[in-house]
Task: structure prediction
Amino acid sequence: MQKSAQRYAAILINILLSVVIGNVIQPNAQALPSFARQTGQRCAACHIGGNWPQLTPWGRFFKLAGYTAGKSLVDKEGFNYVPFGVLGQVGVNWAAQPNDAQGNPVVTQNGLPEAYGFTAELGTKITNFAGIFAEYGVSNGFPGWKGASGPIDIRATHFFHPGNSELLVGIDSNNDPTLQDVWNTVPSWGFPFYGAPQAPGAPASPMIASLAQETGSIGAYALFDRQFYVELSMYRVGNGFFRFMNAGTSYQSGAQYLKGFNPYWRAYWTKEHAANVFMVGTFGMRSKVYPDSGTPSGPTDLFTDTGFDAQYQHLGDTRKFTLRSSYIYEKQTWSGSYPLGNVSNPIDNLKTLNVNGAYTVGDGWTFTGGAFFSNGSAESGLYSISDPNGNQLTAKPNTAGYVLEVDRTLTQNILASVQYTGFTKFNGLTSNIDGLGRKPSDNNTLWISLFFAF
Amino acid sequence: MQKSFIPTAAVIALFSFASNTWAQKSWNAPKLVTIYCSGCHGVDGNTPLPYFPKLAGLDAAYAEKKMTAFREPSGPPVDEALWWALKVMGSKKAAGNVTRQERMNMEGVAHAETPEQIKAAVVWYARQPPAHGHAESGALVMQGKELFDKGIPAQKVLACATCHGPDAAGRGPAPRLAGQNAEYLIDQLEKFSKGDRKHSPEMTMVTRDLDADQARAAAAYLQTR
Result:
């Protein structure tokens, strides 16, 4: 009896971690070398200190203007540049305690050099008013390599000049809510930008951050005098027409299957003053998700995410720093899962807070530190951990920790990175997080990686 | 009534703070300016980012010449690793009329666009009214004014006003400096003195004996103009 309970706890931890690894730490993307070929600029023109994916004001505008600045891909003399690039990442990950008390691995491939993924990118202006950012990657799913669509963002824009003002209007289609955003505060582009695929992360994340490469959208945005931005996009499940954006996603189980079109909204105000750029904004999404992606019918769960974010960036000639924060409140109405008995409460909530700062010297070194917190309702259907005797230890998603990172841009094409992730609380517990005596800090990881983009 | 007043007032305050420059500013610029140049230099050429030069009121002929300089071959702008390998293999780098930092940002722009588009852009910026400099005073600014007006005879540093005009508005091949971002100016003076910018023998000569504090003073003064 005791042994089976222990095994149950170990399996549950493993499932939890694999869900985290699969859903939260998406190998997400990057700087696109083909955009550098298109504009003739170096990575550092769009990415602060060449430290992708952090954007400079010009990088943000380039994206909002539909990736259209630069040479035409084709003119009467033929092709002007190669619109493709190759990205890849290799690294080693060490956990403080890779195995649980019984010797079962919690963090796999510990201390072993690994290749995480190789990605082909297509990033180019298509015409003078439209552009595309697309990736297709082959990533190491531990175990096994799998090919799948990466982030895809397609947009078309037009500049209007009402009176003496400027109104940039764009339409956009993408496969991940917040992927289209230009600030490094939102889930798709927030810090930590990358993490080891094997390393443990927070057990819960809001729905808006869990839909990468499982959805497809159509939306419109407007930027007025480069200060006020508003956007409304509608997301649906990434099949049918949107299949090309989500190739490699199986909706048989474990994926998020959205019902109908789900609204995503975004608004912000930004202002430049001397070398300083301020932004305050809000974003959110209302998603109806089937409890089981394999059988998309019947009542759905409703997730209402409301987020607030702010960024302050100082852009000195050689020294630049950025402070970022984001807060997301999610209301989870389990109209589908509760009647099925999958969750214990009809309504739950989840709050996540991210605060971080980066300091960049020249085009070489970047030092980043950040803290993350998640807090939410006790929900034994999702977060329950029991001790070997079957007594429930926790049912809360509450997790807190920090990430410290040093990056070195070796050439503009190669980024070396050392990242340390520490946990002070895991699943609502500050000790004995698996019923076998594991401490939150046993999940701490040191990760060294090399990232290249050509 | 009371309740709705506060948010309304807040929104109005926010808009009026944000729109302090809207009245004078035209955003209806040529396509190249709208989509490209303005990303760093601002639509009206008065960028608040201090390490980019302000282009408002800059002589079109000077700016066009500078854009032509960015087209001179010096190696591929993007593939740094490849460029490094070529250098190691003994490829000769063409003498640069522009600095590495400028090339990084500007070479692609200059190559990407047609001469007509570039002409339209420099003419647009030449017509934009330059924003007033930051009104500042103090010892550094006074020192800069002295240097600008009279030079430093002891060091054989020529007065800037001789070529750039007494109001620093630019004259002939000498560009406008009034109101220019100090950080950008300091950077350029350093580049002239180190020989990274070579196209102006006069500036190379003037900056040869200029020390860092004097450069800072000159830049601080010019920014206030």
Chain B touches chain A through 34 residues (CB under 8 Å). The CA atoms of residues 61 and 106 of chain B lie 17 Å apart. Residues 139-224 of chain B form a domain with the Cytochrome Bc1 Complex; Chain D, domain 2 fold (CATH 1.10.760.10).
